[in-house]
Amino acid sequence: MAGHSKFANIRHRKGKNDAAKGQIFTRLGRELAMAVKHGGGGDPVSNIRLKDAIAKAKSENMPNDSIERCVKKAAGSMDTVDFEAVTYEGYGPNGVAVIVNVLTDNRNRAAASVRNAFTKGNGSLGTQGCVSFMFNDVGQIMVETDCGMDEEELMLLTADAGADDFITLDEGYEILTPVSLFSKVREAIENAGVPMISAEVTKLPQTYVKLSAPEDLKSMNKLLDLLDDEDDVQNVYHNLSYE
User: Fold this and answer.
1) 242, 224, 240, 241: which is closest to 100 by C-alpha?
2) Fewer beta carbons within 10 angstroms: which end of the chain, N or C?
3) Average pLDDT over residues 16-34
């Protein structure tokens, strides 16, 4: 996918209407709650998972008071945070690989919703592991060109912190890290006062699939839209190329 597409996708997500933003904040709230429960409590100093979740929430423009409220609520009800993490894998039109991460308090409801999205998008659910081998788990940080730091200086800063790759794109920089060093690299950028437009651990496809038939692209977009509308769905990864 071209660099401008990555930045355009981020801006599109952040520019959604209030209702859609509320849905995004609900997902981030669940992620914060799970980080508190499974990462070691509500103190981000000692809970790296929570620290990363907070950074991600801030990059999505979630208000600080909302973040603090979610963390305090989760920390005060450790035994009642009962969301279950489930991953579904499958195929969109023409074999596009799709991975869906879910956090849900009702596994049957989530499974039915995900299955329905694949069916209506002319795709099909597959077995566990059927497409995950096509993706790499990486830390990904996006920084705009006008970030207040020279490109070479930023490249050296991230390399020293452990980044694997520094990619110059049309509108900025994409910094890729090993998952184990994501927090260290993100903190180095944050401590240098460089604003990040996104920072998260994600899955990047090893190869991309291009849909040349308009009906296939329409079906794939429908599949992605339906998944995006589901509150239980946290993240969707795919190898569709829009180039």
Assistant:
1) 224
2) C
3) 79
Residue 231, token pair as written in the block? 């509150």
- CA angle 153–155–156, rounded 5-degree value: 65
Report the C-alpha gap between 102 and 197 in whole angstroms: 24
Domains of the chain: 3-76 (1.10.10.200), 84-133+206-241 (3.30.70.980), 134-205 (3.30.70.980)
Query: Model confidence at 23, in pLDDT bands (50, 70, 90)?
Result: confident
State pLDDT tens for residues 205-228: 999 999 999 999 999 999 999 999
3-state class of 144 per DSSP?
strand
Closest CA to 192 of 175, 207, 209, 205: 175
- Whose tokens are 């996918």? That residue is 1
Strand ranges (DSSP E) for 31-159? 84-91, 97-104, 124-125, 135-144
Q: Are 121 and 223 in contact (CB under 8 A)?
A: yes
pLDDT tens-digit series, residues 128-157: 999 999 999 999 999 999 999 999 999 999
User: Is residue 137 within 8 Å of residue 101, measured between CB atoms?
Assistant: no
d(CA 67, CA 86): 24
Nearest CA to 54 out of 100, 196, 62 is that of: 62
Q: Which two tokens stand for residue 84?
A: 């279950």
| ∠ Cα 226 232 233 (to 5°) | 55
At 124, list the tokens.
């099909």
